[in-house]
Amino acid sequence: MSEYLLEAQEITKEFPAAGKKTVHAVSGVNLQIREGETLGLVGESGCGKSTLGRLMIRTLRPNAGEIRYRGQNITAMKDREFRPLRKEMQLIFQDPYASLDPRMTVRDLVAEPIETWKLCDSKDAVTAKVKELLKAVGVPEEFLYRYPHQFSGGQRQRIGIARAIAAEPRFIVCDEPVSALDVSVQNQILNLLKELKTSRKLTYLFISHDLSVVHYLADRVCIMFLGKICETGPTEEVYRNPRHPYTRFLLDAVPEPDPSLRGKEIRLLKGEPPSPADPPSGCRFRTRCPYATERCAMEEPALREIGNVQAACHYAEGIQA
Amino acid sequence: MKQKILEVRNLTVSFRTEKGIIRPVNDVSLDVPAGSIVGIVGESGCGKSMTARAVMGLLRYPGKVTGGSVVLNGRELAGLPEKERRKLRGAEVSMIFQEPMTSLNPVVKVGKQVEEAIRLHTDCTKEEAKAKTLEMFRKVEIPEPETRYKCYPHQLSGGLRQRVLIAMAMICKPSLLIADEPTTALDVTVEAQILKLLEQLRDGGTSVLIISHNLGVIARVCDYVYVMYAGRIVEEAATEVIFSRPAHPYTRGLFRSVASLREGGSTLETIPGVVPNLLRLPAGCSFSLRCAECGANCEQNLPELLETEPGHKVRCFRTGKEATV
């Protein structure tokens, strides 16, 4: 039995693009998620973080590499073999407006997974279970027969969460679950996710571009750039002492709600982001990195241990000083 | 006293809906002094974008300005015929939007689109227009301007598209740029670049009115901040003042939500409930439904926007009282 709940080994996902090009969405990524932890996956748009999240729960199949769930290789499984495991992995989407069928009532939306997995044997039992789930996510019971359009964004997201936990999963991929929400509502949803994690013993892969949201929820964090992981480690450690130059730029760029920092010169990344259809040789960050040398173009830096974090940079130690 | 580029007084925008009249902008007054960046902050639906559109004269039916005045460079805009307003848009006041892709024409090269703006407002030749466009591209730091000139919007990254829009907005050197959530659709590293560009524009003599829900963005670039809630301004002050002494319960809640998120801790601060439906606003203070300090008169009477200290105005019975005692 593996010590990890979920483990990705050297997974690669490529998509065909126009002009016989290939988009290298995820390239040879290793990722480990322990039971009961929240792993934050951070990166800017197009870095492959959502693709990686979908690969982890087999809603996408990798071109190479394998995913192990509790020691079993789920990549090699047949659909029929995998089906019982599907129930244990769920997904919470970013856009609560697009992810709920507008023609279904809240009751039917939340009942759908219960009925799919035949978790209750009568209609009344299903309704009772739906009520219990709605209570858990903080949607008042009297809204049972309303439609999604009658709810605010935050409440819709709560319904989306109720759907995700309905099948009693162990692992949930949260793909930007609060990006579409206002700050005050965002915090309500984050608190709910944290509470559900404890009460239902869940494990999260939390995908976000928002560094402060990840800081709040994640035990460990993975920073992605253009299909590769450039740094990973305990959240506090990575935020306090970033080793990879990209992590530094990313953390520096977040505007702080503190006007006294205004005079501070912000270091800006140079150039334009490289295209995932044509990634640079060697280190994929090198075209934007102020520390890049010839070695970075020739030789791809591997993720290596530095203290208790891992970073993929030839000069991680030197930059720190 | 600095010269004012924009003076908005008691602006009210009304929408007639099936269920009654709503006022997404209600009695809003604000100033943009020359050479400054002023921010409007608030959550979705608070009326911040609607205020900007009303200033630009870009309200869509059934939205209508039903009261108040908008004075740009000493000239009253309310009641100005559409033909006159058109001459001002792009020349004296420009606007950039959140999603740069939807603001650009997908089938026209970006260089041509920027040129169109100059040729509409000045009678320069094609060659002059092109030269000016390229110069503007350089100014907004678009790399390889000659190549980008011939690109279509889909060939550019989000950050570059926003730079093209800024170039288009700035090409006639307007005195006021309205930026509606200019960095919301962009990644943080690109956001930092665009914010720096806005500061450079301000230093070049263009005042900026920036609309954002992101307090970090507001703190980084704004000199003065207005906080909006349910169509009204609930608090206004210089950035340093409002960040160090937020007074309105809504502002305090908003600031605490952000602060707790950054510092971690076991539970995040939240504001209970949601933004009220504009059709069913309470008779008194519109925040009273969610306010922990709400008293009896808060639900019945609307507090006025009053000064609690020089240059700091708050719309709240509670904080107003404290300050006068």
Describe this structure in words.
Chain A is of the alpha/beta class. Chain A has one domain: Rossmann fold. Chain A contains 11 helices and 12 strands. Chain A has helices spanning 49-56, 79-86, 106-116, 123-137, 153-166, 183-199, 211-217, 235-240, 245-253, 294-298, 316-320; strands spanning 6-17, 21-33, 38-42, 64-69, 72-73, 89-92, 171-175, 203-208, 220-225, 228-234, 304-306, 309-311. In chain A, helix 3 (106-116) packs across helix 4 (123-137), helix 3 (106-116) runs parallel beside helix 5 (153-166) and helix 4 (123-137) crosses helix 5. The longest helix of chain A has 17 residues, at 183-199. With 325 residues, chain B is α/β, with parallel strands linked by helices. Chain B has a domain at 248-325. In chain B, 37% of the residues lie in helices and 25% in strands. Chain B contains 13 helices and 12 strands. Chain B has helices at 48-56, 82-88, 100-103, 110-121, 126-139, 145-149, 158-170, 188-203, 215-221, 239-244, 249-263, 296-300, 317-324, and strands at 4-17, 20-33, 37-41, 63-72, 75-76, 93-96, 176-180, 207-212, 224-229, 232-238, 306-309, 312-314. An 8-stranded mixed beta sheet of chain B has the order 6-7-8-3-9-10-12-11, with helices on both faces. In chain B, a hairpin with a 2-residue loop joins strand 11 and strand 12 (312-314). Chain B is globular and about 65 Å long. Chain B starts with a strand and ends with a helix. The interface between A and B is large, with 41 and 45 residues.
